[in-house]
Amino acid sequence: MCHSGSGYPHTADSEVLTESVAYWRTRFEDADAVASRLACRLRGRDQRILQLERALARTAALHHALEDSLEQRLEQCSGPPTHAVDPDRPSQGSSDDAGSSVIVRLPHLTRALSLLFEVMWEHWAQWDPERPPKSSTIARAIDAKLGLKGQADGEASRNAQSFAAALRPDSLGDADGRHR
Hints:
Blueprint: H1 11-78, E1 83-84, E2 101-102, H2 111-124, H3 135-146, H4 158-167, H5 170-175
Antiparallel strand pairs: 1-2
């Protein structure tokens, strides 16, 4: 900035300075307006998210309450027995509790568990105590159902052998002296 001998800036410099201040003031006001508008939109989105969270929480609570109610009604309808006959499955020919199946309550059912239960029904639903199914046969069936590969020597996979042992009735393990 140029100063005259009296210490005041030249009028040309003063005009440039005034235009520069006006320009930056306008830019500041525009930026302030944009920031204000964005803050307002952000508050609106935050409120919308809060509403959605509340709706989701209400829906989840309603779902759990309805689920509990339906479970209670189902338990009331099914009665107090701990064993029930499944009409879709053949009854056991010889077992500890002939003609009944066991109800198991699980928090969830995986594909693998479902397939293991199928193998259990196929091989243990009607078995002769004099000739129980071989564990190796059941292990191969488990390999086939779960898509597991057998061992190189032709035996079922070790996982399938473990599953087959777990599916074997406890009464057989006690009778033939097997230890768990």
